[in-house]
Amino acid sequence: MIGQLLAGHYKVLEVLGEGGFGQTYVVEDIHLPGKPKCVLKRLKTINTDAESLETARQLFYKEAETLLQLGNHSQIPKLLAYFEQNQQFYLVQEYIEGHPLSRELPLGSRWTEVQTIEMLIEVLSILEFVHSQGVIHRDIKPDNLIRRASDRKLVLIDFGSIKQLRTQTATAAGRQNVTAIFGTRGYMPSEQIRRLPRPSSDIYALGMIGIQALTGVYPHTLQDDPETGEIVWQHLASTSPELAAILCKMTRYHFKDRYQTATEVLTALRKLDNSVGRTTANSDANVVLHQLTLEWVEDGQLKYRTLADKERSKNPGKIRIGRDPQQCDLVLQDPTISGLHVEIFFHQQRQRFYLRNLRQQNPPIVDRQLLLAGEIPLSAGSTVRLGQQDFRVREIACKHYPQGYMPMDYAKCFAITLASSQPPPKTIRVSQLKKSEESGKKVPSHKSLVVPASIAPKKVQPKLKVVTAIATSAIAGVFILSATKFNKNNSQQNFLSQQPQLCRVVSPSGGKLLAKLRPQPQTEIGALKQLNLGEKVLFIKVKGDFVQVKLADGTQGWVFGDDIQRCDKTIGNSGSFYSGSNVQPN
Question: Which positions are catalytic?
């Protein structure tokens, strides 16, 4: 399919994924100025006999009609075209650039109550519209909610498993069609398993996402009460009784006991949302600290730094980043980073971390957007580029500490660099660096900053692959892990040069340095080998949550989809194996 031209308009660029309904691709419309990218979905037809084709055709046009209806909402992808060619059926939809919500919900990451309520209200507003059109989505899950890069809003995708309320059963060729089971384990209620989905089935799934956000636990691992069937989760979260009651009602085992409409849940949440700020402000039982963890690679080492909203810093309330130790709390060495480049701060009213540009002549790139001035909100999975240095927001969390607790002074306790009376060397522009590299000239290097021996990472013996950092803190710390060398040999470059669009780089989730190459998907037995962070592989195909890849030595195997991303994306980008953080299959 790659390179094929469909309907005389759409040139296939890459594979996005494969599901029960068919395959999904990124295409470009060669007839429009700028050749804009679109998402093309091909409906899978197993049988080609006349009766089966007619049934598939009816399903195809039904889905197209529904998508046309739903595309009127700004947070649902628009249907651009649909057609039939060579007994195959195709849908062309709007290309959504962003990352899936699942990237913001890694295992162990807990959201604040305010963040959770904000997410629930936003998605319920979309579901309110979807249900009003007579449609049940049936597969609400984090992977089907895309955080749009342009405005940070959530977009609901993948209506391939829609269920129209008015046509729950249909008759074809004298036989009653049985509605297929669609959904994802952990987010799918009991009536959906019995092939009887209702609008409250979507409410259940969203409630499970809310519980996942508060507990940091994947829904399918939660236990249920053996007598009532209700999910047992409240002991894993620190939340108000009011929000817990709403989530419990959203996720009741029996659909009759749940909220019946999205509007009902919205009403309850909006009342609670208005009181959360006052409750938090009046609470004196403990200190609530909001934390953001950055990760980046420097000098071949993977580094972490956790920032806290009440952390002592040179400019109270803000953590400044750059190369000047006199002005910055996080001091970096890359010569393309400005002396004082950006600052990160926590907005109390909005309950979110923001990044502010402090250097208009050397603007940062946040989630692939050039921030010329002002500030932009950060989320778990957000990417930041300063000069040529890439960062990723690994985690955003909210933690509780005893009354009177304050974060340690990071500069005194961990002293990543010693303040110097000498001003930092002049910033090297990226354009200047590239010209120097092309001409073969050496770029002026910056002086190494002094690191106290008490916290300097120990040298790693050749046989060791991981080093545990010796500087840690309950609030802020730096974790230094030895990372795989990123210099690729010529054989691997030749291996991928012919098919760059299929190049993927190993980027294990959860801060791991290794990814397991399996002989078959969904198996932990008989691993072929361990793939190192930064190793490049060739994409072959997708099967469920796994991707088949090929190594430079010809070895083929399967890796978990979250453990790889596209090669043309920067380190730490929140891209999925489907699209490199651009779009999810719809």
Answer: 139
